[in-house]
Inverse folding.
């Protein structure tokens, strides 16, 4: 159980670091004339991410879920997703954010993993929502939150794509 809580602590520390970076980027983007799009949708996503950690912990503890026999493969997939996530964050630079922040007139970033596909950061998040619970045999959380995340990200991508298109030079 100590490995589970250690892993969760590291994930939460990662999220706290990312939120700190996002707040710094948000301030800079607003100084450049940026604006946030879909504030209410962001709140729902934050709520879902919080509920994910609660569900994962409750399922692990209440049902005493064992470590998945394939945990090493799942962990490798998790780390690959983290590499993709930070490559995407690095490639977006100041334009990476946890919110949908639009700066009118700024071209769409097409470097790093964005050269190959449109939403690498979201691909990493989708992978994480599926794989992290599977590492600890938390199948209810894996299925439920993978579906919820896919629905919310689908909505978010539509809104983000539309906002970016309307802000292009």
């Amino acid at each position: 159980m100590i490995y589970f809580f250690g892993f969760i602590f590291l994930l939460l520390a990662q999220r706290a670091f990312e939120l700190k970076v996002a707040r710094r980027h948000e301030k800079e983007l607003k100084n450049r004339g940026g604006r946030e799009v879909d504030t209410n949708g962001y709140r729902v996503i934050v709520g879902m991410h919080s509920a994910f950690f609660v569900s994962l912990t409750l399922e692990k503890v209440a049902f005493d879920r064992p470590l998945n026999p394939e945990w090493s493969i799942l962990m490798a997939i998790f780390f690959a997703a983290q590499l993709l996530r930070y490559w995407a964050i690095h490639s977006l630079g100041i334009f990476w954010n946890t919110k949908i922040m639009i700066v009118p007139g700024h071209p769409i970033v097409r470097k790093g993993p964005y050269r190959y596909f449109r939403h690498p950061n979201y691909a990493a998040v989708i992978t994480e929502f599926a794989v992290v619970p599977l590492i600890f045999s938390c199948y209810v959380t894996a299925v439920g939150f993978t579906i919820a995340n896919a629905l919310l990200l689908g909505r978010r991508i539509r809104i983000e794509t539309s906002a970016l298109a309307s802000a292009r030079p």
Observations:
- The beta strands are 35-37, 100-102.
- Residues 72 and 135 are 8 Å apart (CA to CA).
